Amino acid sequence: MTSPPSAPAPAAVHAPDNPTVRQALRSPRRLRTEVLAGLVVALALIPEAISFSIIAGVDPRVGLFASFTMAVTIAVVGGRPAMISAATGAVALVIAPLVRDHGLDYLVVTVLAAGVLQIVLSLLGVAKLMRFVPRSVMVGFVNALAILIFSSQVPYLLGVPWLVYPMVAVGVAVIVLLPRLTTVVPAPLVAIVLLTAAALAFGLAVPTVGDQGALPDSLPTLFRPDVPLTLETLRIIAPYALAVALVGILESLMTAKLVDEITDSRSSKSRETWGQGVANVVTGLFGGMGGCAMIGQTMINVKVSGARTRISTFLAGVFLLVLVVALGDVVAVIPMAALVAVMIMVSVGTFDWHSVRPSTLRRMPLSATAIMVATVAVTVATHNLAYGVVVGVLVAMVFFTRRVAHFTEVVDVAHPDEDTRVYAVRGALFFASSNDLVQQFDYAGDPQHVVIDLSGSQIYDSSTVAALDAIETKYRQRGKDVQIVGLNEPSRVWHSKLSGQLGAGG
C-alpha cells in the first residue's frame, strides 16, 4: 500500500528579512544592525527635535524628552516594528498657536487629550479608512515627504562657512560609496563619525549640533500641568487636541503603510493607532510636546540602516536620552554638515523617481498624475503631510466619481408587443450617475407600458431612488404604466424603503 504524499511544510510565520525581537536577539548580525541603526537614528533625532521645539515655541528639552518617551513607548505598544515615532514638525505647527497664547501647561493637557482621542478613534476602527487611500496619493505622499526632508536641510546650507559644502559632499560620498565595500557598519554612522573627527582634528569652524540649542543635563520627570479643569479649558484645547490626534494618526498610518511596502510585510494599523495614543499620553505625563511617526528617521532606520524590529526603535529613544544627558558635550560638537548629508541621502532614497520618468508619465492616466501632483503641491505648500493626503484623496474621489458616472447607460433592449417597451439600465447608480437618468427616457414617444430592467445595475444611494420616483411620476403624468424589475436584494431594500418618501415626484 502506497503511503500518501506528505503534506507540504507550513510557511514560516516570519520571513527571514522581518525577524521577531526574539530572533534578532539570537542573531549577532541582526542585533548589531538593530543597535547601530538605533544609534544613527538617535543622532539624527537630536537636531530635528530641537528645531521642532523652536517651531512650537517651547524649550528644546520639551522636544528632546518627547522624542525619547515617544520612541521608547511606541517600540513596546506600536503596531509597526522598526517605525520611529518622536516629536514632529506637523505636531509642532499645530500646537504653536496654543503655546504662544496659553503656555506650556495647556500644551501638556492638549497632548494628553490628543492621546486619549487617538485611543478612542482606534477602538472605533479609524485605521480601516486607510483602504480608501489610492496608490497615486501614496506616491504623492512619498514624493512630498522627500521634498520636505530636502527643503528642511536648506537653512543649514545658507549663510554658512564655505567649509560646510565640501563636508556635506564628503558625507554624501561616504553614504553612497561605503555600502559597495561593506555593510557591517551603517554608512550614515561612518559619515557622522568621520566628519566629526575631521572637524575636531583640524579645528574647523562650522555649525554644530550644540549651536541649535541647549541640551538637557537631567532625566525627564513627571509633569503636573497647572490648568483649571473647566469647560473653558476644554473649549481652548479641544480643537488643538483633535488636530494633533488626526494629524498624528494620518501621518503614522501612512508611514506604516510605506514601511510595509519597503519590508514586504504587514502591520496592525489598529494597534499602531492605539499605540500612538498611548505614546502621546506617556509623553504628556512627562511634559513632552507630543508627536507621531517620523518619516525621515523611519527611512534612515528601515531603508538606509536595514533595521526590521522594535529593538532599533527602542534603542533610538534610549540612545537619544544617553547622548543628550550623559554625552551632551560630545554630541554638541557633531557638525550639522554630517547630519545634513544623511538627510539629503534619505530624501534622495525616499523619492519615487520612477513616478516622474517621462515613460511612466506617458503611460499613466492623466487623473493619476493629477492626484499625485495635488498631493505633492498641497503638502509642500502647507508643510503638512496630512493636508496633502486629505486633498489627494478628495481629488481621487472626484476623478473616480466622474469616471464611474459615465459607465452608466440606458439601453432600449426589447419591444415584446406594440404596447410595451423594455429599457435596461446598466452600471452603478449613485448621485453622480443618476442625476441625468431622468433625461434618458422618451416619455412622450414610449408606448402605454414601460418596463425598466435594473438587473444589470446597482442602487447605491437615495439620489437614485429619487430619480426612479421622478421617472415613474413623469410616465404616470402621461397616463402610462411603469414597472421596475430586476432589482437585486440590496437595491430592493434601498428602493422599497425610500420610494415615495423623498418627494421626487413633487
UniProtKB/TrEMBL annotation:
Domain STAS as annotated: residue spans: 418-506
Pfam family, one: Sulfate_transp
Transmembrane is among the record's keywords: yes
Intracellular or extracellular location(s): Membrane
Source taxon at top rank: Bacteria
Transmembrane stretches, start-end: 35-56, 62-78, 106-126, 138-156, 162-182, 189-210, 237-259, 313-346, 366-399
Predominant location: membrane
Record flagged with keyword Cytoplasm: no
Membrane association type: Multi-pass membrane protein
UniProtKB keywords: Membrane, Transmembrane, Transmembrane helix
UniProt-recorded name of the protein: SulP family sulfate permease
Origin species: Microlunatus capsulatus
Lineage, uppermost ranks: Bacteria, Bacillati, Actinomycetota, Actinomycetes, Propionibacteriales
